[in-house]
């Protein structure tokens, strides 16, 4: 009986093991050989390579190393089968960041398997999103810089006598898509807030989002549930409180960002817009921005226009015009400028809403704030703007970007993309007014879809709190801060008039441009051969590198000059002493004799001038040797043979008090270079850098596009991508000892140098001494302050 039970258990275990063996490992790769990647603009040019399907990416690699394409699974928007050709079965993979790749697979079975697998990759829940699996590089820590909504409102001067903070939504009772803290008029009561919340769609009552220095404000909400005749006294009272919060105006605007016909149609569903008969001192305006469904169709037409093969000029321009994409961008900008004029010129409060208050409302609130406040045009300020208007106030990122299969495809729409493009259009009109560059906007768009970071997961703040994204994922803003120089605009001038004032552009049909670097970024044949912003960034970095290196060379020259001057002074004093001694001896020998007697001397064959020069030639190399190659300290003090001694006490070094220069600190005195160190300094900085317009691909085969920055290695001057660059290298040739981008090959070469270890130890010791000196200064200052306080 026991044996039978054993056999049954053994069978069950064996069966279970077989089932587990059939489950694919997360690292299992689906590999297809001889896949053809077709150039969309040159069908005759095909690259044959290997296609890999991993747990996170679809990768195409050319065996000759000419091309390498990585596609993140979460960025795939569609996979379509194309008609079979003689070369095989084509698949067209489109992504959310506008890559369209046509892959021809030799075998139909492999094509069918790949097609099925790719269509099943989209996760069906938040827990399976890429951000919860992503392993970031070592330099990126899982640290979230806390965004406090209260801090941003304090910057605007809120709370004050007219506005207060309300914590009635701390448990998301009033509105589950609003932040826990909301800001409302100081005169508003809780009854008004509760009544207005019930009267507004999704409970999104009117709350403050921006306060201008002149007292005018921007508030946001959703459409009222008014139907044809319904009214709410609490909502009417709340709007009167908002009106009275501005002492400079007796009227206010309500901006409905929908076309009037759409708003009237919503009345039949019991929603609609405010009845002007019930709201006194209100001016009502419609700004016709179409809904998410129209925008989705418009983007689809735009992408079809971008994929046209060899169109004529008339065909291309007609298709672009038929997409109405630029017309929609203009409508959004026109609404934002209208709001900006009402705030800045008319000094009137503005209440903005659309249907539910999380799409067009977010666009108009954020764009008008950007035009009104220069702070939002900085990198840090723009981050605050995104956090406040889009994340805290509940833009539906997961639904609009289609993060999971549970998201309705009809809910997807490029709302956030339109906002970013509107910002880009403004940056083209005011190129010196924005601290961030085009790459920053493109990166924002890509990572709102990629799910690589937790910032854009979920549809509101409550969703992200429930998912614990701050504890489980990496922050996109931390990535930006760690690479902030990649996203700075080289044309930004804080002192320029446009950087410190309200922007009121005039938008016409001729003003707007097609965003080539966004929609054609992967088509190198269409992009400019040399980008002005990238070229300026390269020139700034190159100038910084050379200036820093020149400072170090000047320091070395001053040290040598000071040493030579000191040597000449020593020689002069020595010669004077010798002549005085000779004169005294001759006086003793002469006695009272008045005639000079010539004594026999040893004839060296050199004149006095030649002898003096010989003494100088003999002494200068010895003095240089003392500076460039100090003798080793006694064995009892240090066992470092040469260069940087481990003992920086006076016993381990030659006294240097006579060589201290006015511009040098005590820390610089310990930095005595060896000949090897000087050679390392001279060879660690590239004087000539390669131009950005030369390479199309990095040495690792990764193609360059407008979303990726090209780096010049500061040591060899060649171009590299971000994954081939190390940024934690202290180059010996830099006076500032700052970190510099260096390619991995040069990094290995520098680190293998014997003098680099001594240089690194010196940099570390300098940093430690600097920190200690700063700490001591702070402590001394605090003690002085305490003493003065006690007195």
From TrEMBL:
The keyword Metal-binding applies. The keyword Metal-binding applies. GO terms for molecular function: phosphatidylinositol-3,5-bisphosphate 3-phosphatase activity; phosphatidylinositol-3-phosphate phosphatase activity; zinc ion binding. Residues 143-519 form the Myotubularin phosphatase domain. It is an enzyme of class 3 (hydrolase). The active site is at residue 354. Keywords: Hydrolase, Lipid metabolism, Membrane, Metal-binding, Zinc, Zinc-finger. Residues 572-593, 623-644 are annotated as: Disordered. Its EC number is 3.1.3.95. CDD domains: FYVE_MTMR_unchar, PH-GRAM_MTMR6-like. SUPFAM superfamilies: (Phosphotyrosine protein) phosphatases II, FYVE/PHD zinc finger, PH domain-like. One of its GO terms (cellular component) is membrane. Belongs to the protein-tyrosine phosphatase family. Non-receptor class myotubularin subfamily. This is phosphatidylinositol-3,5-bisphosphate 3-phosphatase.
């Amino acid at each position: 009986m026991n044996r039978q039970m054993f056999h049954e258990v053994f069978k069950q275990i064996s069966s279970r093991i077989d089932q587990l063996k059939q489950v694919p490992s997360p690292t299992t790769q689906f590999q297809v050989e001889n896949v053809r990647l077709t150039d969309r603009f040159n069908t005759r040019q095909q690259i044959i390579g290997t296609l890999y399907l991993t747990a996170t990416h679809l990768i195409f690699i050319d065996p000759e190393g000419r091309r390498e394409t990585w596609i993140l699974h979460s960025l795939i928007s569609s996979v379509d089968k194309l008609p079979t050709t003689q070369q095989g079965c084509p698949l067209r993979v489109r992504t959310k960041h506008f890559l369209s790749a046509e892959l021809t697979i030799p075998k139909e079975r492999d094509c069918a398997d790949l097609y099925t697998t790719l269509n099943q990759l989209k996760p069906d829940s938040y827990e399976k999103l890429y951000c919860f699996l992503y392993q970031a590089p070592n330099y990126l820590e899982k640290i979230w810089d806390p965004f406090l909504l209260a801090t941003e409102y304090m910057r605007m001067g809120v709370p004050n006598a007219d506005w207060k903070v309300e914590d009635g939504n701390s448990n998301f009772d009033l509105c589950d898509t609003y932040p826990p803290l909301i800001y409302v008029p100081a005169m508003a009561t809780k009854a008004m807030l509760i009544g207005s919340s019930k009267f507004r769609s999704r409970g999104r009552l009117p709350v403050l989002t921006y306060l201008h220095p002149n007292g005018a404000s921007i508030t946001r909400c959703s459409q009222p549930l008014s139907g044809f005749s319904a009214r709410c006294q609490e909502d009417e009272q709340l709007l009167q409180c908002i009106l009275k919060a501005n002492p400079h105006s007796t009227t206010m605007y309500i901006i409905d960002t929908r076309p009037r016909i759409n708003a009237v149609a919503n009345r039949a569903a019991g929603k609609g817009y405010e009845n002007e008969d019930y709201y006194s001192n209100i001016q009502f305006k419609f700004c016709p921005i179409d809904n998410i469904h129209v925008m989705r169709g418009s983007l689809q037409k735009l992408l079809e226009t971008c994929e046209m093969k060899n169109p004529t000029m008339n065909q291309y321009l007609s298709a672009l015009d038929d997409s109405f994409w630029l017309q929609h961008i203009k409508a959004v900008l026109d609404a934002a400028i209208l709001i900006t004029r009402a705030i800045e010129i008319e000094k009137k409060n503005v209440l903005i809403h659309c249907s539910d208050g999380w799409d067009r409302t977010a666009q108009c609130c954020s764009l008008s704030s950007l035009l009104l406040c220069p702070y939002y045009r900085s990198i840090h300020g723009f981050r605050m703007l995104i956090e406040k208007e889009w994340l805290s106030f509940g833009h539906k990122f997961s639904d609009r970007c289609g993060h999971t299969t549970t998201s309705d495809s009809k809910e997807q729409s490029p709302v956030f993309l339109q906002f970013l493009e509107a910002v880009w259009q403004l940056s083209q009109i005011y190129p010196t007014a924005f601290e961030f560059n085009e790459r920053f906007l493109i990166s924002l768009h890509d990572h709102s879809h990629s799910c690589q970071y937790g910032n854009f997961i979920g549809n509101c703040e409550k969703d992200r709190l429930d998912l614990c994204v701050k504890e489980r994922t990496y922050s996109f803003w931390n990535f930006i801060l760690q690479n902030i120089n990649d996203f700075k605009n080289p044309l930004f001038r804080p002192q320029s008039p446009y950087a410190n004032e309200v922007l009121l552009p005039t938008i016409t049909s001729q003003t707007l441009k097609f965003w080539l670097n966004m929609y054609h970024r992967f088509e190198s044949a269409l992009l400019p051969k040399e980008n002005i912003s990238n070229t300026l960034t390269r020139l700034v970095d190159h100038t910084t590198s050379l200036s820093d290196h020149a400072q170090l060379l000047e320091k070395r020259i001053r040290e040598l000059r000071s040493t030579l001057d000191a040597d000449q002074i020593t020689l002069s004093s020595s010669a004077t002493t010798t002549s005085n001694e000779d004169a005294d001896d001759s006086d003793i020998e002469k006695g009272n004799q008045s005639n000079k007697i010539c004594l026999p001397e040893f004839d060296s064959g050199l004149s006095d001038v030649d002898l003096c020069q010989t003494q100088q030639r003999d002494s200068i190399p010895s003095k240089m040797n003392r500076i460039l190659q100090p003798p080793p300290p006694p064995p009892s003090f240090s066992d470092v043979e040469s260069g940087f001694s481990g003992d920086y006490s006076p016993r381990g070094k030659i006294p240097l008090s006579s060589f201290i220069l006015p511009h040098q600190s005590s820390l610089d005195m310990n930095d005595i270079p060896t000949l090897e160190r000087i050679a390392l300094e001279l060879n660690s900085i590239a004087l000539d850098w390669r131009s950005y317009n030369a390479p199309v691909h990095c040495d690792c085969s990764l193609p360059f596009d407008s979303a990726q920055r090209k780096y010049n290695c500061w040591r060899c001057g060649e171009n590299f991508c971000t994954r081939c660059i190390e940024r934690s290298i202290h180059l010996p040739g830099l006076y500032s000892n700052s970190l510099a981008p260096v390619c991995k090959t040069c990094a290995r070469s520098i680190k293998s140098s014997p003098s680099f270890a001594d240089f690194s130890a010196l940099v570390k010791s300098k940093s430690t001494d600097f920190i200690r000196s700063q700490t001591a200064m702070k402590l001394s200052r605090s003690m002085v302050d305490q003493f003065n306080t006690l007195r």
